[in-house]
Amino acid sequence: MDNRRKRKLTFLTIGLIFLLSGVEYAVILPTIWMYLQTLDAAPYFLGLTLSAFSLSGLLSGPLFGLWSDRTGNTKKIILFSNIFEIIGNFMYFMGFSKWLLLSSRLVAGVGTGAGSSIFGFLTRTTAPEDRATVFAAIMACRQVGLLIGPAFNLFLRLCDFHLGPFVVNKYTGPGLFMCLLWALFQVLVVFMFSDLPPTEKGKAKETCKKMEVENKEQGPGGEDSEERQPLLHSQELAASDDSVVTSKRPTYHTSEVSNTTQNHIPPLPSPAQSDQWESSSSFKNFGICKEFLKESVIVLLFAQFITLFNQTALETMVTPMTQKYFNYGELENSIMYCLCGVEVISSFLFVRWLSQRASERVVLAIGLAICNISCVWCLVFVVKPLGNFSWQLTEFIIGVFLQVLGLPFVAVAQVSLFSKVTAQRTQGFSHGVRRSVGGLATILGPLWAGGLTDNLYVMIGLMLGLLALLTLMLALSYNRLVAPTTVEQLDNSESCA
Fold first, then answer.
1. pLDDT band, very low/low/confident/very high, at 153 (cuts 50, 70, 90)
2. SS3 161
3. Which residues pair with 166 in a beta bridge?
4. Distance of CA 22 to CAs 112, 303, 493, Å?
5. Are the C-beta atoms of 6 and 197 separated by less than 8 Å?
6. Among 145-149, 342-346, 431-435, 474-478, the least confident range
7. Contact 132/412 with Cβ under 8 angstroms?
8. What share of the chain is helix, strand, coil (3-state, %, to 5)?
């Protein structure tokens, strides 16, 4: 199989992972509250169950990311993580007690930890200028899952039969359905997914081979050989990392390299010395002071936390609220989530287009503005709906529409920027930390909303305060939210002239 076909099948498999994660969310969320009620669970148990899924993902994400950084084997990580999805969803299908239901989401959540390895893999195999577009497409796959998930619920809600000792109904059916889908996907990963080489390193290897051939033609003592040797080292260093240039790794421009013989510029370290330097200092450069305490990183992690905290808090609030004010059941909730999926997919497609014409920080600012407007609207009109039934429903729909609209802008922009302001060699671990911050938000969000369903002013008031703080941080750090200066990669035609 040629490399181009491998790449297409691999990216298709990644899209399917996010698609299935969206389907799982969409088929379980509309019915989980009623499922818990049949097991005599208290209202706060809804928040606990939703948070359990995020908790295990929070803990497993950095570990899977570190595993992928050290081995470069993303395929094994995906296969391993899917086992937890299969087991967790089967436990959800069994559903003998509320504690088993809680445990099932805890086990299934481990499978989401592979997302950090996948984002690290995408960062290593895509060019920086294409990264926002790729991330937007991958994230849109999850929204497609959210869109088609409610359609599966339309027939799952009709299930009413026994499978051995187990009862298959509209509450347990989603667990069995997702167990079968993840098991089928396990087979697809074996045959379709390939661990692709990093794009930049692949280019560097081809350049090195070309220059080695030309050096042999010139002879071991030729003048061209002496000039190309330091240039070759410079290109290898340029391809080895996209992180910020330090004083230990000097930068040479094309004009400077062409005059190396005349000016007697000392050659850069040999490849072996470069690898030794990077291996001995990789964790120093990745230390907390230089990496996760950078102003740009803090702002992006804070954006990850706040947007997911607000999103999951509102999602937890939605089903009890629609039941209270509009008497919605699982069918109406499924249709609502389906419509939200259509909106989110459209928003992701628009963000994909916009990211090719505007910087990530501009996209992030637009998303935050929409989220602020949404929160203010919910605080004014959704907490205590005004007017008759039609007006109340309209006010609720506008609030949900604005909340869903702003999410793709913030999600794509902060993920793409984060991949550019953190070290290339540790992308798996970095995205694991980022996803753990998001996991913490998805734990605290449902817990916060689950305990305040009768006091929405306090719940939404805190959300608005956090958004205002993030907006202030974005304004103060706006100039720093750019990709750092990297070592200049020289053109092959210039270097061989």
1. confident
2. strand
3. 163
4. 11, 22, 47
5. no
6. 145-149
7. yes
8. 80, 0, 20
Task: Tell me the pLDDT tens digit for each residue of 26-77.
Answer: 788 878 888 888 888 887 788 788 778 878 888 888 888 888 888 888 899 9
Q: How many C-beta atoms lie closer than 10 Å to residue 364's C-beta?
A: 26
- CA-wise closest residue to 243 among 277, 291, 204, 279: 291
Supply the angle between the helices 74-94 and 3-38 in degrees, to the nearest 10.
Answer: 20
Instruction: Please state, in angstroms and rounded to a whole number, the distance separating the CA atoms of residues 120 and 426.
Output: 8
DSSP-derived letter for residue 244 is -
- Residue whose entry in the numeric block shows the structure tokens 């669970």: 41
Q: Is the pLDDT higher at 203 or at 432?
A: 432
The Cα–Cα gap between 307 and 313 comes to 10
* List of residues 6+ apart from 65 with CB closer than 8 A: 116, 117, 120, 427, 428, 429, 430, 431, 432, 433
Tokens standing for residue 145? 């899952």
* Residue 61 tokens, joined: 């994400």
What is the spatial distance between Cα 177 and Cα 489, in angstroms, rounded to a whole number? Answer: 50
Structural domains present in the chain:
3-196+288-480 (1.20.1250.20), 201-244+267-285 (no CATH)
Q: Which DSSP string do the residues of 312-350 spell out, in sequence order?
A: HHHHHHHHHHHHHHS---HHHHHHHHHHHHHHHHHHHHH
pLDDT digits (tens, 9 = 90+) for 327-379: 887 678 777 877 877 887 888 889 888 888 888 899 999 999 999 998 899 88
Is residue 118 a contact partner of residue 131, using CB atoms and an 8 Å limit? no
d(CA 49, CA 33): 10
Residue with tokens 């270097």: 495
What pairs with residue 163 in β-bridges?
A: 166
Q: How confident is the model at residue 465 (pLDDT cuts 50, 70, 90)?
A: very high
Encode pLDDT of 172-185 as tens digits: 889 999 999 999 99
What pLDDT does residue 362 have? 92
The rounded distance, in Å, linking the Cα atoms of 494 and 497 is 5
What is d(CA 300, CA 473) in angstroms, rounded to the nearest whole number? 10
Cα dihedral 116, 121, 124, 127 sign: negative
pTM (predicted TM-score): 0.63
- Amino acid 302 reads F
- Coil, strand or helix at 167: strand
**Neighbour-count burial of 217, counting CB atoms closer than 10 A to its CB (0-12 exposed, 13-18 middle, 19+ buried):** exposed
* DSSP state string for 188-214: HHHHH---PPPHHHHHHHHHHHHHHHH
Which pLDDT score, from 0 to 100, does residue 125 have? 85
Dist CA 99 CA 495 (whole Å): 65
By the 8 A CB rule, do 193 and 186 touch? Answer: no
